[in-house]
Design a protein that fits this description.
This protein is an alpha/beta fold and 425 residues long. The chain folds into three domains: 113 residues, GTPase HflX, N-terminal domain (Rossmann fold); 171 residues, Rossmann fold (3-Layer(aba) Sandwich), CATH 3.40.50; 52 residues, Alpha-Beta Plaits (2-Layer Sandwich), CATH 3.30.70. The strands form three sheets. Strands 6-7-5-8-9-10 form a six-stranded mixed sheet, with helices on both faces.
């Protein structure tokens, strides 16, 4: 037994490749990374080629018995399928293989359940899990009754799943109400940011592309150097799920907010995208999008296309987008192969090695559609409408009521700056 298999859940990953489909090895590689992220180790991978999906056993009854033999010989704990299974398929495969059977969707949901830390994040994952499991209650009952837990068993417990569908539908309704309240809180915070007139840059991209590392380096180099504001970074899929918002400065001194978002992956469960839409939609309010790509990953086009598909669903492809090829310390620029039609503005960096981060900041500065300037004004009291306008529409500092008028410092749009320039001190 290899050392890495000790104390980890041993799995076989299974993929179905239809005759008219392209090769699925890349997708299986990604599934293996997902298993690792969930705390398991892949012992074997099996790819079954068929003309069509078997409605009862997905891969066919004979193949199911073949997998059963592998499991018995190699003491396998779990079999993970690369596609979503129906409740009947789950039940039938378990009856033959006599091991825990989970699919790619349940695996991703399981990872999210183990990583969510905020109250809202946990509710979002639970909602997606309940929506996924509701039509599969019959198929789930057997494996959830197994002892030991492990991959695929995080989240809503067996007891809740044994209750009738009406209870689960009621729970879904309660969670959706709670998430609506959370959205109201987000909207209030967002309104304050809008009033502050500070531009927002959103980091999006595939999971483990280095978004959190990039955010940390930007706030370290161009922020206030407060280490408490760093976000969690780890070399695995879905290391962080929560949206993070930090402040930094551009080379011209203009402040901007930079937000990290949950990473994407191919075949991301529909219910999960829907549940996290409230969080992901922060991208909709950004002035500029940084699409971060792991340049060292051989599946560049899958990464890029998956992210663009989700951005298309969010209807934000009309925003300025810079494609940031990260991890260039691991890859030669001339070796990169990708579909150029999906990439317009681009830059090649290494967040870990601080390579070209200064150039990235200049690109951000050049591509932000709205430019701001920090200035101090002394506005006479007779110009009360202007004073009210600033106080109502901007965050301000160093406010003083002097004999000559109101003195304050504000980060203001260039349009408003031109109107107030005569009062600058």
């Amino acid at each position: 037994m290899k050392p890495e298999t000790l104390n980890k859940e041993k799995t076989i990953i299974v993929g179905l490749q239809l005759y008219d489909e392209p090769d699925i090895e890349d997708s299986m590689d990604e599934l293996e990374e997902l298993v690792k992220a969930a705390g398991g180790v892949v012992v074997f991978r099996i790819i079954q080629k068929k003309k069509s999906v078997d409605p009862a056993y997905f891969i066919g009854r004979g193949k199911a018995y073949e997998i059963k033999e592998y499991c018995e010989i190699h003491d396998i704990d779990t079999v993970v399928f690369n596609d979503e299974l129906s409740g009947a398929q789950l039940r039938n495969l378990e009856d033959i293989i006599d091991r825990k059977i989970i699919d790619r969707t349940n695996l991703i949901l399981d990872i999210f359940a183990s990583r969510a830390t905020s109250k809202e994040g946990k509710l979002q994952v639970k909602l997606a899990q309940l929506k996924y499991r509701l039509p599969r209650l019959v198929g789930f009952r057997k494996y959830l009754s197994r002892t030991g837990g492990g991959i695929g068993t995080r989240g809503p417990g067996e007891q809740k799943l044994e209750l009738d569908r009406r209870y689960i539908l009621k729970e879904i309704n309660n969670i959706e109400k709670a998430l609506k309240e959370a959205k109201k809180t987000r909207d209030v915070k967002r309104k304050k940011r809008e009033n502050a007139s500070i531009p927002i840059v959103a980091l999006v991209g595939y999971t483990n592309a280095g978004k959190s590392t990039l955010l940390n380096r930007i706030i370290e180099l161009y922020g206030d150097n407060d280490n408490s504001k760093k976000v969690f970074v780890y070399d695995m899929l879905f290391a962080t799920l929560e949206t993070s918002l930090r402040q930094a400065k551009l080379p011209n001194g203009q402040k901007f907010l930079i937000t990290d978002t949950v990473g994407f992956v191919s075949k991301l469960p529909t219910d999960l995208i829907e549940a996290f839409k409230g969080t992901i939609e922060e991208v909709s309010y950004a002035d500029l999008i940084l699409h971060v790509v792991d340049a060292s990953n051989k599946n560049l086009d899958i990464q890029i296309e998956t992210t663009l598909d989700i951005l298309r669903d969010l209807d934000v492809l009309d925003k300025p987008i810079i494609t940031v090829f990260n991890k260039m310390d691991k890859k030669d620029k001339n070796e990169l192969i990708y579909d150029t039609k999906n990439v317009e503005k681009k830059i090649f960096i290494s967040a870990k090695k601080d390579k070209n981060l200064d150039q990235l900041l200049h690109m951000i500065m050049e591509n932000l559609p709205i430019t701001y300037k920090e200035a101090t004004f002394l506005i006479p009291y007779k110009n009360q409408p202007l004073i009210s306008y600033i106080l109502n529409n901007y965050e301000y500092g160093n406010l003083e009521y002097l004999e000559e008028g109101v003195k304050l410092t504000v980060n203001i749009s260039l349009t408003d700056y031109q109107r107030l320039k005569r009062f600058e001190v």
